[in-house]
Amino acid sequence: MPVLVIDLNHSKNAMEYTKTPDEVSWLLNFLMKVDMFSALTPEELYEVIRHVRKMNFRKGESIVEQGAVGDSFFIISKGTAKPVLKKGPSETVELGV
């Protein structure tokens, strides 16, 4: 499952990722369709795109762990994910979306 990961570190040292022109075009078109980004100008979207990297996850693999400190924003670009709440060392509850 392809997931777009956006580095949220706002310092000047935030990671930037190299992309081909085709990747930039695809990301621009994709992000323009995401409600959260739809009001941004193309220039603002290009700024976001500079900090996007694509990661792939296998079925059943965790994208993010409960309680982990986060500095990234995740967008599932294809497929689905199930949010799961850990209630104890061996007990989990699948959350409804």
Helix content: 10-25%
The string of secondary-structure elements, in order, is EHHEEEE
pLDDT average, as an integer?
Answer: 85
The strand count comes to 5
Q: Which word captures the global form?
A: elongated
Radius of gyration: 15 Å
Strand order of the largest sheet: 2-1-3
Helix/strand structural class: alpha+beta
Low-confidence stretches: none
Which percent range describes the beta-strand content? Answer: 15-25%
* Distance linking N and C termini: 18 Å
**Given the structure, what is the number of helices?**
2
Q: What does the largest sheet look like?
A: 3 strands, antiparallel
Q: How would you describe this structure to a colleague?
A:
This protein has helices spanning 21-32, 42-49, and strands at residues 2-7, 52-56, 72-76, 84-86, 92-94. 5% of the residues are buried. It is of the alpha+beta class and 97 residues long. It is elongated. Strands 2-1-3 form a three-stranded antiparallel beta sheet, with no helix packed on it. The mean pLDDT is 85.
What is the topology?
Elements: E1 2-7, H1 21-32, H2 42-49, E2 52-56, E3 72-76, E4 84-86, E5 92-94
Antiparallel strand pairs: 1-2, 1-3, 4-5
Features:
97 residues; alpha+beta; 2 helices; 21% helix
Write a brief structural summary:
This protein has 97 residues and is α+β, with helices and mostly antiparallel strands. It has two helices and five strands.
